[in-house]
Amino acid sequence: MVVGAFPMAKLLYLGIRQVSKPLANRIKEAARRSEFFKTYICLPPAQLYHWAEMRAKMRLMGFRAEAVKPLNEDAAAELGAELLGEATVFLVAGGCLVLEYWRHQAHQRRKRSERQTAWEAMRDEVGHLALALEALQEQVRAAPAQSALEELQAQMREVRARLRARDPPSAPRATPEE
């Protein structure tokens, strides 16, 4: 099963975002039904949004907007509920982005740690190999030189040749059997 090609975390985040839309719709419905929610949570942001939007539009058209007429309560409640629903979707999507960023950063830290560990292991191995090389170099220095070895072999051949010249090969002797 190939899990790396289709990360489960991304699928989970997509599912959360899809679930947030119906959640936003339920919040909108609750805002329309509840008088407290409508009065204190939906109306103030809706009126502020309407005020800022109307001032920006009037300035773009070249008028001075000194006083902006507020929305009626029903329109403000509807606009506030829409703003709240959109804010809910936005916050859930933003939360998913933050979680994905944290997950990515944790993955990067883990990879960096693994690389650092591998680097230290290689450095230790190189140190051990350097020590082994030094020991082998000392053994080579301590061993007789190749020319000295060849000289000793030549001397041995000479000694053998002299010994053969002095003593003629003797006949094999039979050993008496009992």
Using the CA coordinates, give the radius of gyration: 46 Å
Helix-strand pattern? HHHH
- Gap between N and C termini, in Å? 86 Å
Weakly predicted, low-confidence segments: none
**Average pLDDT reading:** 82
Number of helices in the DSSP assignment? 4
Taken from the alpha-carbon principal axes, the silhouette is: rod-shaped
β content, as a range? under 5%
Number of beta-strand segments? 0
Report the structural category. mainly alpha
Helix content: over 70%
Q: Largest sheet, if any?
A: none
Describe this structure as you would to a colleague:
The structure is a single chain. The protein has 178 residues and is mainly alpha-helical. It has four helices and no strands. Helix 1 crosses helix 2, helix 1 runs antiparallel to helix 3 and helix 2 crosses helix 3. The relative contact order is 0.07.
Characteristics:
rod-shaped; 4 helices; 178 residues; single chain; mainly alpha
Structure, briefly:
The chain is mainly α and 178 residues long. The protein has 4 helices and no strands. Helix 1 (8-33) packs across helix 2 (35-61) and helix 1 packs antiparallel against helix 3.
Please give the structural blueprint.
Blueprint: H1 8-33, H2 35-61, H3 73-142, H4 146-166
